[in-house]
Protein: Sodium:solute symporter
Organism: Streptomyces curacoi
Amino acid sequence: MADGAMTATFLAVIGGASLLAVTARRLHPSDRLPSLEGWALADRSLGPVWTWLLLGGTIFTAYTFTAVPGLAYGNGAPAFFAVPYTVIVCPIAFVLLSRLWSVAKRHGYVTAADFVRGRYGSPPLALVVALTGILATMPYLALQLLGIRAVLTAGGLYPRGAAGDLVMVALFAGLAVATYRHGLRAPTVISALKAVAVFVSLTAVCWLVLERLGGFGAVFDGAARRLGGTDAANSPLLLSPDQQPAYATLALGSALALLMYPHVLTAGFAADGPRTLRKVSVALPAWTGLLALFGFLGIAALATGVEAPDGGAEAAVPMLVDRLMPGPLAGLVFGAITVGALVPAAVMSIAAATSFVRNVYVEYVHPTATPKRQVRIAKAVSLTAKVGAVAFVFGLRDQDAINLQLLGGVWILQVFPAVAVGLFTGRLHPRALLAGWAVGMVAGTFLVVREGFSSVVPLGTGAGPVEIYAGLAALLLNLIVAVAGTAVLERLGVPRGADLTDLPSRLTVRRRPETGANQP
């Protein structure tokens, strides 16, 4: 049961987040008329610091901060694929986000599907990109609530029964109101508190853990013995050769998928320019270091003998914090992780609402909708998404949300050819991209479901199957179909839509006149 000091600190952090959300309207106030760009993208006005806070706070979610250490607690080394994956994201973001921002700003695009619509002149392709993004985002949104519940339950801050449900609703209600009124500005200001609280509390927790357990060596040796080894060098804390393909493909596939999520692109579109995005991409590894420390705490939970409930390994670190930390510090950690869920949850609901309004409502229902009406519909859809996430968490098992999120990662990766490849070449035929998307969706879903909702699947014959990430296998099929289909459709003379962007139709390399260096 939580003590008074823990509860007071926790409430102080949550109260601070609420107060910051109220001040969101002061962040770059504007006298412009209501527009979707203003509500969903903060008028594309965020500088490097705010963009770094928002993008990092959006990518590194509360569930990530509990799931990664939970996986480390249960499986050891394989959990740390998340560290190289978030490092791989940085150079990809450096190139893709800045290029996509430039095109989006020039043509007024608000979503990735807007870009696809303009690039290929294909409403059906834009529609499937938008719907795939919404479909992949909704279980991810629900997982933020699961992360909050796991943390609060482990800390004794989540009452049983209806009272606990009311706590969850109350936490989300303030976020819903702030997001409804101020759009992306609300999670942007809250992200500042998230960064400070998480960085400070995690540093303190790791310092105390190392002091009490005797350093990194003692922690890893103790965890190794819990996993059945003799020391860190002879235990599951090290990758075995047969785990390396899964580790590598998970890291690569997850990195490619992450930048296709609507909430990540929404945070990127809110920057004030491509230069800002390049600066932020260089600075994002600071958040990766934070994730690595959370993974280390999962190892520390093993070393200290924490007994997480069956099927609830994500509670290992909250239980460790509750066991080792004084009440005020534990309350700070729990508050930080809870705030860590509010930022991505808000951005996810905004991104899903924006995709629906721009690429479904305006495209197919009300093409003449005024900007004011688009904002009104987006606000309603955003609120509905949050209510749906709460109902999802209360109405279904936790494992259902986790399974759907695993599928969501595989699904969102299938829009990579249309969005990311389309930034550099328009040669792929939109109908071939649609066919590739369909093959990738079906193949990826089949592989994941066949293995009991495992994202790592065995492929191959002969000496033995190799385990790889299902999303990456499905993406390869997707690309093969898209390339082969383009060749067939061009040979048959099937027309394609007009390209309304100013991007080159094919990938070219030119030289900078002042240096002679190659550039795409």
DSSP finds 21 helices and four strands in the chain.
